[in-house]
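Dear colleague,

Thank you for sharing your sequence with our group. We've completed the structure prediction you requested, and as agreed, I am returning the results in plain text so they can be pasted directly into your records. Please verify that the sequence below matches your submission; if there's any discrepancy, let me know and we will rerun it promptly.
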Amino acid sequence: MSTPITGTRFATGSFAPIAVATRNHVDESLHHGAGVVVGSDGSIVRALGDPELLIHPRSALKPFQATVMVDAGLDLPHRLLAVVTASHSGEERHLAAVREILQRHDLSVDELANTPARPYGHAARAAARAAGVEPSALQQNCSGKHAGMLATCRINGWTTDSYLDPDHPLQAMIADTIDRLAGRPGGSVADVGVDGCGAPTHVMPLVDVARAFGVLVREGSDATEAMAAEPLLVGGTDRDVTIWMEAVPGLAAKEGAAGVMVLALPDGRAAAAKIADGADTARQAVTVEMLRRLGVDVDGRLSAVRDRVAVPVLGHGVPVGALTALSWN
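Please find the predicted C-alpha coordinates below.
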Protein backbone atom coordinates (compact mmCIF):
# COMPACT_ATOMS: atom_id res chain seq x y z
CA MET A 1 0.00 0.00 0.00
CA SER A 2 1.26 3.47 -0.90
CA THR A 3 1.63 5.90 2.00
CA PRO A 4 2.40 9.65 1.96
CA ILE A 5 5.98 10.81 2.40
CA THR A 6 6.27 13.71 4.82
CA GLY A 7 7.31 16.98 3.21
CA THR A 8 6.50 16.07 -0.38
CA ARG A 9 3.54 15.26 -2.59
CA PHE A 10 5.17 11.94 -3.44
CA ALA A 11 4.14 8.68 -1.79
CA THR A 12 5.99 5.41 -1.24
CA GLY A 13 4.28 3.98 -4.32
CA SER A 14 5.06 6.90 -6.62
CA PHE A 15 8.35 5.38 -7.75
CA ALA A 16 9.96 1.95 -7.92
CA PRO A 17 13.56 0.79 -8.48
CA ILE A 18 14.24 1.43 -12.17
CA ALA A 19 18.02 1.43 -12.82
CA VAL A 20 21.19 0.32 -11.08
CA ALA A 21 24.82 1.40 -11.44
CA THR A 22 27.55 -1.17 -10.90
CA ARG A 23 31.24 -0.60 -10.20
CA ASN A 24 33.60 -3.52 -10.57
CA HIS A 25 30.70 -5.98 -10.40
CA VAL A 26 29.27 -4.47 -7.20
CA ASP A 27 25.97 -2.60 -7.26
CA GLU A 28 26.83 0.96 -6.24
CA SER A 29 23.79 3.18 -6.83
CA LEU A 30 20.06 2.65 -7.29
CA HIS A 31 17.74 4.98 -9.19
CA HIS A 32 13.97 5.01 -8.74
CA GLY A 33 11.37 6.06 -11.26
CA ALA A 34 7.93 5.57 -12.72
CA GLY A 35 7.13 4.15 -16.13
CA VAL A 36 4.18 3.07 -18.20
CA VAL A 37 3.56 1.28 -21.49
CA VAL A 38 0.27 1.68 -23.33
CA GLY A 39 -1.22 -0.23 -26.23
CA SER A 40 -2.36 1.37 -29.47
CA ASP A 41 -5.79 1.85 -27.86
CA GLY A 42 -4.28 3.72 -24.90
CA SER A 43 -4.83 0.91 -22.39
CA ILE A 44 -2.09 0.33 -19.82
CA VAL A 45 -0.05 -2.74 -20.72
CA ARG A 46 2.63 -2.45 -18.05
CA ALA A 47 3.44 0.02 -15.31
CA LEU A 48 6.24 0.60 -12.83
CA GLY A 49 5.51 2.91 -9.94
CA ASP A 50 2.41 5.10 -10.28
CA PRO A 51 1.26 5.58 -13.92
CA GLU A 52 -1.03 8.43 -12.75
CA LEU A 53 1.92 10.30 -11.24
CA LEU A 54 1.69 14.00 -12.09
CA ILE A 55 4.85 15.19 -13.85
CA HIS A 56 6.23 18.12 -15.79
CA PRO A 57 6.99 16.51 -19.19
CA ARG A 58 9.35 19.42 -19.86
CA SER A 59 10.79 19.16 -23.40
CA ALA A 60 8.83 15.97 -24.05
CA LEU A 61 5.95 18.41 -24.68
CA LYS A 62 7.64 19.83 -27.77
CA PRO A 63 6.00 17.44 -30.27
CA PHE A 64 2.59 18.45 -28.88
CA GLN A 65 3.47 22.13 -29.04
CA ALA A 66 4.75 21.76 -32.60
CA THR A 67 1.55 19.96 -33.61
CA VAL A 68 -0.49 22.93 -32.41
CA MET A 69 1.73 25.28 -34.38
CA VAL A 70 1.11 23.25 -37.53
CA ASP A 71 -2.63 23.21 -36.85
CA ALA A 72 -2.44 26.99 -36.47
CA GLY A 73 -0.88 27.40 -39.91
CA LEU A 74 2.87 26.84 -39.49
CA ASP A 75 3.99 25.26 -42.76
CA LEU A 76 7.58 24.02 -42.71
CA PRO A 77 9.47 21.20 -44.44
CA HIS A 78 10.45 18.28 -42.22
CA ARG A 79 14.05 19.49 -41.83
CA LEU A 80 12.78 22.70 -40.20
CA LEU A 81 9.77 21.30 -38.36
CA ALA A 82 12.06 18.71 -36.75
CA VAL A 83 14.08 21.45 -35.07
CA VAL A 84 10.84 22.96 -33.70
CA THR A 85 10.37 19.66 -31.79
CA ALA A 86 14.02 19.52 -30.78
CA SER A 87 16.19 19.84 -27.73
CA HIS A 88 19.02 20.31 -30.17
CA SER A 89 22.73 20.10 -29.49
CA GLY A 90 23.46 23.56 -30.88
CA GLU A 91 25.43 22.32 -33.87
CA GLU A 92 25.62 24.63 -36.89
CA ARG A 93 22.93 22.57 -38.69
CA HIS A 94 20.55 23.33 -35.81
CA LEU A 95 21.37 27.02 -35.60
CA ALA A 96 21.02 27.40 -39.37
CA ALA A 97 17.58 25.77 -39.26
CA VAL A 98 16.42 28.12 -36.50
CA ARG A 99 17.68 31.15 -38.43
CA GLU A 100 15.85 29.95 -41.54
CA ILE A 101 12.54 29.57 -39.68
CA LEU A 102 12.88 33.13 -38.41
CA GLN A 103 13.93 34.56 -41.78
CA ARG A 104 11.01 32.87 -43.56
CA HIS A 105 8.63 34.80 -41.31
CA ASP A 106 10.45 38.15 -41.21
CA LEU A 107 11.67 37.60 -37.66
CA SER A 108 15.08 38.06 -36.06
CA VAL A 109 17.04 36.14 -33.44
CA ASP A 110 16.64 39.16 -31.17
CA GLU A 111 12.93 38.30 -30.83
CA LEU A 112 13.65 34.88 -29.30
CA ALA A 113 12.59 35.03 -25.65
CA ASN A 114 14.12 31.75 -24.47
CA THR A 115 16.84 31.77 -21.82
CA PRO A 116 20.34 32.45 -23.24
CA ALA A 117 22.71 29.49 -22.92
CA ARG A 118 25.63 27.78 -24.55
CA PRO A 119 24.95 24.74 -26.77
CA TYR A 120 23.59 21.59 -25.12
CA GLY A 121 25.92 19.27 -27.05
CA HIS A 122 29.37 18.76 -25.53
CA ALA A 123 31.31 19.30 -28.77
CA ALA A 124 29.27 22.32 -29.83
CA ARG A 125 29.56 23.84 -26.35
CA ALA A 126 33.32 23.38 -26.30
CA ALA A 127 33.63 24.89 -29.78
CA ALA A 128 31.53 27.92 -28.82
CA ARG A 129 33.55 28.45 -25.66
CA ALA A 130 36.86 28.14 -27.54
CA ALA A 131 35.66 30.67 -30.10
CA GLY A 132 34.65 33.11 -27.38
CA VAL A 133 30.97 32.96 -28.30
CA GLU A 134 28.81 34.20 -25.45
CA PRO A 135 25.63 32.35 -24.38
CA SER A 136 22.64 33.26 -26.53
CA ALA A 137 18.98 32.39 -27.07
CA LEU A 138 19.88 31.03 -30.51
CA GLN A 139 22.32 28.47 -29.08
CA GLN A 140 19.98 27.33 -26.30
CA ASN A 141 18.49 23.91 -27.04
CA CYS A 142 14.86 25.14 -27.20
CA SER A 143 15.47 27.86 -29.80
CA GLY A 144 13.72 25.86 -32.53
CA LYS A 145 10.52 25.65 -30.49
CA HIS A 146 10.63 29.36 -29.77
CA ALA A 147 11.27 30.19 -33.42
CA GLY A 148 8.24 28.07 -34.34
CA MET A 149 6.11 29.82 -31.74
CA LEU A 150 7.13 33.25 -33.04
CA ALA A 151 6.46 32.19 -36.62
CA THR A 152 3.02 30.87 -35.68
CA CYS A 153 2.20 34.17 -34.00
CA ARG A 154 3.32 36.10 -37.08
CA ILE A 155 1.15 33.91 -39.33
CA ASN A 156 -1.94 34.49 -37.17
CA GLY A 157 -1.38 38.15 -36.40
CA TRP A 158 -0.92 37.42 -32.69
CA THR A 159 1.37 39.51 -30.54
CA THR A 160 4.92 38.19 -30.39
CA ASP A 161 6.14 40.05 -27.32
CA SER A 162 3.94 38.00 -24.96
CA TYR A 163 4.01 34.63 -26.75
CA LEU A 164 5.14 32.85 -23.56
CA ASP A 165 2.20 34.08 -21.50
CA PRO A 166 -0.05 31.12 -20.54
CA ASP A 167 -3.06 33.22 -21.59
CA HIS A 168 -1.64 33.90 -25.07
CA PRO A 169 -3.85 32.39 -27.84
CA LEU A 170 -1.08 29.99 -28.87
CA GLN A 171 -0.48 28.72 -25.34
CA ALA A 172 -4.22 28.30 -24.75
CA MET A 173 -4.43 26.20 -27.93
CA ILE A 174 -1.56 24.04 -26.73
CA ALA A 175 -3.29 23.30 -23.40
CA ASP A 176 -6.56 22.42 -25.17
CA THR A 177 -4.78 20.10 -27.62
CA ILE A 178 -2.90 18.24 -24.88
CA ASP A 179 -6.21 17.58 -23.15
CA ARG A 180 -7.80 16.31 -26.37
CA LEU A 181 -4.92 14.01 -27.23
CA ALA A 182 -4.83 12.56 -23.72
CA GLY A 183 -8.55 11.79 -23.89
CA ARG A 184 -9.41 13.84 -20.82
CA PRO A 185 -10.97 17.05 -22.18
CA GLY A 186 -10.72 19.81 -19.62
CA GLY A 187 -8.94 17.64 -17.09
CA SER A 188 -5.50 16.41 -18.13
CA VAL A 189 -3.58 19.64 -17.66
CA ALA A 190 -3.60 20.09 -13.90
CA ASP A 191 -1.33 23.10 -13.68
CA VAL A 192 1.08 25.17 -15.73
CA GLY A 193 4.65 25.95 -14.68
CA VAL A 194 7.60 27.66 -16.33
CA ASP A 195 10.13 25.52 -18.18
CA GLY A 196 13.85 26.19 -18.12
CA CYS A 197 13.61 28.04 -21.43
CA GLY A 198 10.76 30.25 -20.21
CA ALA A 199 7.89 28.55 -22.05
CA PRO A 200 4.88 27.13 -20.19
CA THR A 201 5.22 23.50 -19.14
CA HIS A 202 2.07 21.62 -18.19
CA VAL A 203 1.60 19.23 -15.30
CA MET A 204 -0.07 16.01 -16.43
CA PRO A 205 -0.30 12.32 -15.49
CA LEU A 206 2.57 10.20 -16.79
CA VAL A 207 0.17 7.83 -18.55
CA ASP A 208 -1.39 10.79 -20.39
CA VAL A 209 2.01 11.73 -21.77
CA ALA A 210 2.32 8.24 -23.26
CA ARG A 211 -1.27 8.14 -24.53
CA ALA A 212 -1.12 11.57 -26.14
CA PHE A 213 2.20 10.82 -27.84
CA GLY A 214 0.84 7.52 -29.12
CA VAL A 215 -2.15 9.32 -30.64
CA LEU A 216 0.14 11.83 -32.35
CA VAL A 217 2.23 9.12 -33.97
CA ARG A 218 -0.71 6.88 -34.88
CA GLU A 219 -2.50 9.81 -36.51
CA GLY A 220 0.63 10.63 -38.50
CA SER A 221 1.10 14.18 -37.24
CA ASP A 222 3.47 16.32 -39.27
CA ALA A 223 5.54 16.94 -36.13
CA THR A 224 6.23 13.30 -35.30
CA GLU A 225 6.75 12.42 -38.96
CA ALA A 226 9.35 15.19 -39.13
CA MET A 227 11.05 13.74 -36.03
CA ALA A 228 11.25 10.27 -37.56
CA ALA A 229 12.46 11.68 -40.89
CA GLU A 230 15.10 14.04 -39.46
CA PRO A 231 16.36 12.55 -36.19
CA LEU A 232 19.70 14.38 -36.33
CA LEU A 233 17.83 17.68 -36.09
CA VAL A 234 15.77 16.50 -33.10
CA GLY A 235 18.85 15.74 -31.00
CA GLY A 236 22.30 15.79 -32.53
CA THR A 237 25.51 13.89 -33.09
CA ASP A 238 25.84 10.92 -30.69
CA ARG A 239 22.59 11.77 -28.87
CA ASP A 240 20.66 8.65 -27.89
CA VAL A 241 17.28 9.95 -29.09
CA THR A 242 18.78 10.54 -32.53
CA ILE A 243 20.51 7.14 -32.60
CA TRP A 244 17.33 5.25 -31.68
CA MET A 245 15.18 7.06 -34.25
CA GLU A 246 17.78 6.36 -36.90
CA ALA A 247 17.74 2.66 -35.96
CA VAL A 248 13.98 2.03 -35.56
CA PRO A 249 11.82 2.94 -38.58
CA GLY A 250 8.93 5.21 -37.67
CA LEU A 251 9.95 5.59 -34.03
CA ALA A 252 9.37 9.00 -32.44
CA ALA A 253 11.44 9.61 -29.31
CA LYS A 254 11.71 12.70 -27.14
CA GLU A 255 13.47 13.28 -23.86
CA GLY A 256 12.66 15.99 -21.33
CA ALA A 257 14.73 17.61 -18.62
CA ALA A 258 14.78 16.06 -15.14
CA GLY A 259 14.65 12.48 -16.37
CA VAL A 260 11.59 12.34 -18.65
CA MET A 261 11.30 10.13 -21.74
CA VAL A 262 8.47 9.37 -24.16
CA LEU A 263 8.47 6.96 -27.11
CA ALA A 264 5.89 5.87 -29.67
CA LEU A 265 5.73 3.46 -32.60
CA PRO A 266 3.72 3.99 -35.81
CA ASP A 267 0.80 1.84 -34.58
CA GLY A 268 0.36 4.08 -31.52
CA ARG A 269 1.98 1.86 -28.90
CA ALA A 270 3.82 4.18 -26.55
CA ALA A 271 5.79 4.43 -23.32
CA ALA A 272 6.71 7.19 -20.91
CA ALA A 273 9.02 7.33 -17.90
CA LYS A 274 10.15 9.76 -15.22
CA ILE A 275 13.35 9.26 -13.20
CA ALA A 276 12.73 10.21 -9.56
CA ASP A 277 16.04 12.03 -9.06
CA GLY A 278 15.99 13.58 -12.54
CA ALA A 279 19.21 11.90 -13.71
CA ASP A 280 19.53 11.96 -17.50
CA THR A 281 22.01 9.07 -17.45
CA ALA A 282 19.35 6.92 -15.78
CA ARG A 283 16.80 8.16 -18.31
CA GLN A 284 19.10 7.07 -21.12
CA ALA A 285 19.55 3.61 -19.60
CA VAL A 286 15.82 3.18 -18.97
CA THR A 287 15.03 4.09 -22.59
CA VAL A 288 16.44 0.69 -23.58
CA GLU A 289 13.97 -1.10 -21.30
CA MET A 290 11.11 1.05 -22.61
CA LEU A 291 11.94 0.02 -26.16
CA ARG A 292 12.22 -3.60 -25.06
CA ARG A 293 8.71 -3.40 -23.55
CA LEU A 294 7.41 -1.93 -26.80
CA GLY A 295 8.67 -5.02 -28.63
CA VAL A 296 11.74 -3.46 -30.24
CA ASP A 297 14.49 -6.06 -30.72
CA VAL A 298 17.14 -4.29 -28.62
CA ASP A 299 18.75 -7.58 -27.56
CA GLY A 300 19.01 -9.09 -31.03
CA ARG A 301 19.03 -7.15 -34.30
CA LEU A 302 19.65 -3.84 -32.50
CA SER A 303 22.08 -5.08 -29.84
CA ALA A 304 24.90 -3.05 -31.40
CA VAL A 305 22.81 0.10 -31.06
CA ARG A 306 21.98 -0.82 -27.47
CA ASP A 307 25.69 -1.19 -26.74
CA ARG A 308 26.48 2.09 -28.49
CA VAL A 309 24.19 4.09 -26.18
CA ALA A 310 25.16 2.18 -23.02
CA VAL A 311 26.00 4.39 -20.03
CA PRO A 312 29.42 3.46 -18.60
CA VAL A 313 30.59 3.87 -15.03
CA LEU A 314 34.18 5.10 -15.14
CA GLY A 315 37.14 4.38 -12.91
CA HIS A 316 40.34 6.32 -13.62
CA GLY A 317 38.86 7.26 -16.98
CA VAL A 318 38.02 3.76 -18.18
CA PRO A 319 34.75 1.75 -17.94
CA VAL A 320 34.58 -0.38 -14.80
CA GLY A 321 30.81 -0.86 -14.72
CA ALA A 322 27.58 0.36 -16.24
CA LEU A 323 24.28 2.01 -15.49
CA THR A 324 21.52 -0.33 -16.66
CA ALA A 325 17.75 -0.50 -16.44
CA LEU A 326 15.98 -2.98 -14.20
CA SER A 327 13.30 -5.15 -15.78
CA TRP A 328 9.70 -3.93 -15.86
CA ASN A 329 8.36 -7.45 -15.23
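Summary note from our side: The chain has twelve helices and eleven strands.

Kind regards,
the structure core
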